[in-house]
Write the structure tokens for this entry.
Amino acid sequence: MRRSRGVRVLGGVLAVLGGLVLASPAAITSAGNDERERPEPFTIVVLPDTQKYTVSDELAQSLNAQTQWIVDTREQLNTKFVIQVGDLVDSWPDVHQWERASRAMAILDDAGVPSSVLPGNHDLDVTTGESSTYDEYFPPRRYADATWNSATVSYGGYLGQDQFGPDGIDRQNKDNYSLLTVGDTKLLLLSLEYETPAYALEWAQRVIDAHPDRTVILAVHGLITTGGARSTATERTDVTPVTEVDLWRDFISQNCSIAMVVNGHWAVGDAGEARRSDLNACGRPVPQILSNYQGRANGGDGWLRYYTVDPAAGTVDAHTYSPTLRQYEKDDDGRFTLPLDLTPTDDRVLLRGGSDWKVWNELGAWPRGWKSAAFDDDWQTGTAPLGWGKGVQTPIDLGPPPENRARAMLFRKTVELDDVEELSTVTVSTRADDGVAVWVNGTLIGTSHLASKKPTSETFADVGRSTDNATDDPVTFTVPRGLLHDGENVVAASVHVNYLGTNSSTFDLVMTGRRSSSDGE
């Protein structure tokens, strides 16, 4: 699969009023003698699986209440877009269910509220991939001809339009995208069909490549489960389906413009919420968030999720609300704030996240010369993230009991580079808990959260960082000019625990470079 353009892989304040959360007025900041308006927060609503509401006229009232509430609060929340994440209906051949779903979404259409949909597994025939009912009730023309199309928000197109070269297949509106501009923030809202086959991902890549100045918010039906994991199970038999593991590894993580992913599909009883964050190939954390309430009473009791984005703060506030119950969820699963970087990137990836590393994890003194290029690293190999605890791809642990563990794990990676002189700035970002030190070609370029600036096998980290903290707030070092060269380069790292009994110690690393010609653009 082709990588995104510019990527090459080589080796806030919110107020509560009348039961609604209202976006605060824009603040004014000054830069020198120039006064500039602070970018205003704006909201994107996610409609989780609506399938259970569509099975009867009575339950459909909850879906109608959801879309009407979105319309009624549009001004207060500064709502710019609504994303529906699939399973519009419970049974795709049932036209009555589609009529209920269509009438509810028409409340948005009639009020001029921009929206998108995508098909989940209940919206299509998983043996053929087809759905005449989806095509009839939610065709491209419903969105291309919508009154909300304007200079700042518009329906972009669909797979089958031959917009960026031959598509080879016409999926109607099953794979689609929209463009949204809010102030200086330019977004591409991309919606992909269930178990995204190769043809859908190839089209999506062309769409992303055609919009290098836009940051992507991706909507899929399934990505993370209620436990925050990615499934390898598949259901479709008409194509070679893409597992959730493959979708992250081969598409999402490799497109550095994808800043956030939302999904539904997964629910176990009342449980239908989860989130995780992983570094992409450019070293940026990508939030992946599940919201799905179909397992709760009355088809979901009207629960929905909305995200208020604050571009100036670089954050997104998640709120979970039920218009039918007229209440908010207040626990950490339903109300939380995450970092969200919506600035486009044209960094060149020199060493991607999730790469294979040589690993040394033993008690005792470190091997002599282990950081140098001449060292014979006949060590075990594992795919990052490595370590133990949450989110690890390759487990490596000497414990329990805790006293069996070393204070630090060692990692080495040889990276083949070319045209190094074209790079103005090279940075290394690490996901490491608790402390970390990084060397490039034998030279220490930085340490973080360590009790000593000259780490050894006896050095502890000076603070305990959770895996979530390490992922959301990666430690970044700048590689001094002249340290890298064309040909083979060695990146080495030591990851230190805060105490031997810690329940997690993880490591991943990304190295990116910025071309000299891109500076100042």
